[in-house]
């Protein structure tokens, strides 16, 4: 799971799990672990929104209640910070989801 968070192979932690920003490699270059067909679907954006929302919202309320800056400062800070944090968290959350699914033997196309 920690290797997935660091965007590393869930088996050996040596090679990168993604070959582009969010497109995972088919397998590990080092240990040949297969994770290319694991589909995480919406779970990465879902948890990214959850995490970033729980960072931004308290910060926003803290800054507002402590400093009460003008609205234009809020408008300048929070959307930019939200985008930056989302882009930073998204591949890490997806890497974590891939690692968990790989360890559980799930591929994301299971039928109920
Ligand atoms: Zn590996």
Provide an overview of this structure.
The protein is an all-alpha fold. The protein has one domain (2-104). 56% of the residues lie in helices and 0% in strands. It has three helices and no strands. The longest helix has 34 residues, at 71-104. The protein is elongated, with a radius of gyration of 17 Å. The structure holds zinc ion (ZN). Zinc ion is lined by residues 9, 11-12, 14-15, 28, 30-31, 33.
* Structural class label: mainly alpha
- Share of β-strand residues: under 5%
Total E-strand runs = 0
Annotation field: number of helices: 3
The shape is elongated
Rg over CA atoms, rounded to whole Å, is: 17 Å
**What does the oligomeric state look like here?**
single chain
What's the story with the biggest beta sheet? Answer: none
Average pLDDT works out at 94
Distinct ligands: zinc ion
SSE string? HHH
Low-confidence stretches: none
Helix proportion:
55-70%
Number of domains: 1
- Spatial gap, N to C terminus: 25 Å
């Amino acid at each position: 799971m920690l290797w997935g968070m660091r965007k590393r192979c869930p088996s050996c932690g040596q090679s990168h799990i993604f070959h582009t920003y969010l497109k995972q490699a088919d397998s590990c270059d080092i240990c040949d672990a297969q994770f290319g067909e694991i589909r995480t679907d919406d779970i990465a954006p879902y948890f990214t929104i959850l995490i970033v929302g729980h960072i931004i919202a308290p910060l926003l309320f803290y800054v507002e209640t402590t400093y009460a800056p003008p609205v234009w400062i809020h408008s300048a800070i929070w959307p930019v910070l939200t985008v930056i944090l989302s882009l930073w968290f998204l591949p890490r959350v997806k890497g974590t989801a891939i690692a968990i699914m790989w360890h559980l033997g799930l591929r994301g196309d299971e039928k109920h």
